[in-house]
Amino acid sequence: xxxxxxxxxxxxxxxxxxxxxxxxxxxxxxxxxxxxxxxxxxxxxxxxxxxxxxxxxxxxxxxxxxxxxxxxxxxxxxxxxxxxxxxxxxxxxxxxxxxxxxxxxxxxxxxxxxxxxxxxxxxxxxxxxxxxxxxxxxxxxxxxxxxxxxxxxxxxxxxxxxxxxxxxxxxxxxxxxxxxxxxxxxxxxxxxxxxxxxxxxxxxxxxxxxxxxxxxxxxxxxxxxxxxxxxxxxxxxxxxxxxxxxxxxxxxxxxxxxxxxxxxxxxxxxxxxxxxxxxxxxxxxxxxxxxxxxxxxxxxxxxxxxxxxxxxxxxxxxxxxxxxxxxxxxxxxxxxxxxxxxxxxxxxxxxxxxxxxxxxxxxxxxxxxxxxxxxxxxxxxxxxxxxxxxxxxxxxxxxxxxxxxxxxxxxxxxxxxxxxxxxxxxxxxxxxxxxxxxxxxxxxxxxx
Length: 448
Hints:
By secondary structure, the chain is mainly beta. It is about 5% helix and about 40% strand. It folds into 3 domains: about 5-195, no CATH class; about 200-210 and about 230-325, Immunoglobulin-like, CATH 2.60.40; about 335-445, Sandwich (Immunoglobulin-like), CATH 2.60.40. The termini are far apart.
């Protein structure tokens, strides 16, 4: 068999292995989608599993490998009898590779692929130099969840078509992808994708001055580029979404965090709350969690560890969450972001949106390198429960009314024709821009 396994998820990557002939298992489609033809191969050999000095047992033997892309497609394989494995994927996205044991009604993560020299929690297969990479021998330490490949770092980053600087920058961003290693969130001993279920857990971070808009920015965009604009993350929310799992719209939900979180008003709690919103298809739902009515501002980095989402009588367990230091609250280092210039005609209508990419380096504004942009900003026109258009800009005539529709702009472009939307400058209440990082962290910018 060589069928692709598809499922919608959203912020996590995983991999598992089993002793038998190589197989690829089709699991149906959730929020993901795409071609059934693979164009890149990840190979390697499982050298063994260590569990803090304990002897090997059936419970710590790799039985499944799953590769999960940021586009929500999943591919499952098993080991050949000699311990080798080979997984075909679709390049263009990062992938997390997780090694699992599925036995006795329980799914256990033994480890996921990491490269600690550059702090990779995933493989950045966005623009690889060839059509395959061989990881060599992969040694799994179950106590730390580390699955370490023997391929040397120089060869690995060359396969990913990166230089060392870009590889290190990517490593500061991709930490949240580790949460994709959760493939049995309802704890029933079955892979969610085998049951046509898919789940997403991610952070949305506001790149503004607390609650509200960055004021004065629209006038500056009309005059030219604001070369002094620098975002300052002010707060974040957690988003949990599901497909193939129904809940009643309006149902309250509770998120229990690994440690206390606080909002901008100083309200502190171990839990965040929200209410279920059903998607238009009727096959899924999502929920945004905040403390009280405000985004979370403390701690500055979303707490690492295990989260639990409780909805009605169901508890979803999300282990191994890690946040990125790049988009922590009040961060002034490592953020790549767009700046805009709005070109108008004599009648006062916006005809063109010009844009360029900047980067904060220790609070200093620089020009972002093309390789860094490609490594950090997700470029997609997909619009599903888990994957949204990125990057995009949108115009509003009041606090809630969108003018036309959201407008995607290209990651490697410089201008966008918007003349058909008939956006009059006097009608602009505010502008919103958004980008998905390759870690599936969503950055939101609001300008007024």
